[in-house]
Amino acid sequence: MSVRVKIPTPLRKFTAGNAAVEVEGANVGEALKALDAAHPGLWDKVIDGKGKVRRFINVYAGDDDIRFLDGLETAVAAGAELSIIPAIAGGC
CB of 19 within 8 A of CB of 5? Predict the structure, then answer.
């Protein structure tokens, strides 16, 4: 199933500047693996050594944070949109 993955600005160096990439995958994990196959290096920026989404990265399937769904096993339908969103901290 074709899934559109929105890429945040800090990770666009891996996608030749593309803000979104179309990949195939039946769930979030498959889509992210396909993304890494097409654009090597992205997996390690999003997923930690234990196979979980990194602490300061959020992945959304549509409007839902996958941490509150089935994580990387969250199913995605054809035409779904995933968003990789780095957490922002700081300020006064």
Answer: no
3-class DSSP assignment, residue 15: helix
Longest dimension (CA), the chain: 44
Assess if CATH 3.40.50.300 describes domain 2-86. Answer: no
Q: Cα separation of 89 and 3, whole Å? A: 29
pTM over 0.85, yes/no: yes
Cβ contact 46:57 at 8 Å: yes
39-92 per-position pLDDT tens digit: 999 999 999 999 999 999 999 999 999 999 999 999 999 999 999 999 876 666
DSSP code of 21? Answer: E
